[in-house]
Write a structure and sequence with these properties.
Distance between the termini: 74 Å
CATH class of the largest domain: Mainly Alpha
Number of strands: 0
Largest sheet: none
Helix content: over 70%
Strand content: under 5%
Length: 428
């Protein structure tokens, strides 16, 4: 009897492992984890390091421009250089973030490595000479471009390539803003194509956190901190006021998207030679800035965003930033849209505090992520980003602002290749 018990104790664990493996396929799961632990870490290292170098150069460009405002005079010349290089050597890199979305959907061609240096230096020169642009697009394009090189190195299949692109976007977004949870969710939500595929979850989050650690801890690159000093009580009237604010954020998001599309369409229609488009755009930007003394609206505009959380600002700030950013990017300069969206949303929230009885910083914070949500169709990622940046206590208000802005802004965001209609059945 004792021998039987001993034998049973020896066999029982093997039986359990065998049964678990039979029902849950442990070996494929372990293989999946090992593969994506390695690939996700590699993508995170590449994206985080690229973002770190980019942020250092961007800080240099911003400080140099602010100390030498005469550099704005050369914005048209810089525009011609950027346009010429992209037109003659950029190939399909000129599509930017839309190229990442197209490759995720259609899997036509590998994303060229040249996208990384082209968008990096194109963005730096745009900021150095006074264009109104952001940084998210640059980080996401670098992350996606670098990640897609692994497709060739490791001979990845179509499904694995889709995941590696998502990892690149997650790593780029996470490291440039210091928000790993939002970076992972943004890549999953932004690149969602109809049916959600759970295999993307672990690689996206792992790559996002690795990229964040590499950029912030490995390279010592810090990020801007924003503070919502005062919250409002969770009452029905306050939630109603936030819904109204969300409507305003959604309309602002729609205006931002339409402005960029309209300006881009106009330049393509009336100026046949692409390198001349940013020349004309640059002349218009510096003319507006010089004659209206609108230096607060060039570049990223981060100091103005910080001010929006602290003190009342002119009500028209969000309109000025929308117009200059649309003119800059629509004419062919390089950079992202997200930081200008933060500027637009935060200053709009600041202006709404004159009519909506909620704390100024709370409205600025909700606008910060709300307008972003409306233009990128990513309400979940934007809500989480707000909680990472401002604290989880404001989560309910942030969520309402992002969801309402997403619904009000409509189907078309800033990315023309995004297939929003296959993801959500909207009532319009």
């Amino acid at each position: 009897m004792v021998s039987i018990l001993i034998l049973f104790r020896l066999i029982w664990p093997c039986y359990i492992v065998k049964e678990i493996n039979r029902h849950f396929s442990l070996i494929p799961i372990l293989r999946y984890l090992l593969i994506w632990l390695g690939l996700g870490a590699l993508v995170g290292i590449l994206a985080g390091s690229a973002s770190a170098g980019f942020l250092v150069l961007l800080d240099w460009a911003t400080q140099t421009r602010d100390s030498n405002l005469w550099l704005l005079t050369f914005l048209p010349i810089a525009g011609f250089g950027i346009g010429y290089i992209y037109h003659h050597y950029g190939a399909n890199s000129i599509k930017g973030n839309n190229l990442l979305l197209e490759e995720l959907y259609l899997h036509k061609n590998p994303i060229p490595f040249r996208m990384t240096p082209f968008v990096l230096f194109g963005t730096i020169f745009t900021h150095l000479f006074g264009g109104s642009a952001g940084r998210e697009g640059t980080a996401v394009q670098m992350g996606g471009s670098l990640a897609d090189q692994l497709t060739k190195w490791f001979s990845l299949d179509q499904e694995s390539r889709r995941i590696i692109l998502i990892c690149g976007v997650a790593g780029g977004f996470s490291s440039v803003f210091g928000t790993p949870l939002a970076g992972a969710l943004f890549s999953l939500e932004w690149m969602l194509t109809g049916k959600f595929k759970p295999k993307s979850i672990f690689p996206a989050f792992w790559a996002a956190f690795v990229a964040h650690w590499v950029c912030e801890l490995g390279w010592g690159i810090g990020h801007t901190h924003y503070v919502i000093a005062e919250l409002a009580p969770f009452t029905i009237p306050n939630l109603f006021w936030m819904i109204l604010a969300g409507v305003a954020f959604g309309l602002s998001a729609r205006l931002f998207s339409e402005t960029g599309h309209w300006v881009g369409y106009g330049f393509k229609r009336y100026i046949a030679y692409p390198p001349l488009r940013p020349v004309v755009g640059g002349l218009l930007v510096i003319g507006i800035v010089y004659f209206s003394n609108a230096y607060d609206y060039v570049g990223l505009g981060v100091p103005r965003i910080v001010e929006a959380f602290e003190t009342p600002l002119p009500w028209y700030d969000f309109l000025a930033k929308t117009g200059l950013t649309g003119l800059t990017l629509g004419s062919g300069f390089k950079g992202g849209e997200v930081t200008p969206l933060f500027f637009t949303g935060a200053t709009l929230g600041n202006a709404l505090s004159l009519w909506i009885p909620l704390p100024l910083a709370l409205l600025a914070g909700c606008g910060f992520v709300g307008v972003f949500s409306g233009t990128t169709n990513t309400p979940m990622a934007c809500t989480v980003m707000g909680m990472e940046l401002f604290g989880y206590e404001a989560g309910v208000f942030l969520g309402i602002a992002c969801l309402v802005a997403f619904v009000v802004s409509g189907r078309n965001g800033i990315y023309s290749a995004q297939r929003i209609s296959t993801r959500f059945k909207l009532p319009y």
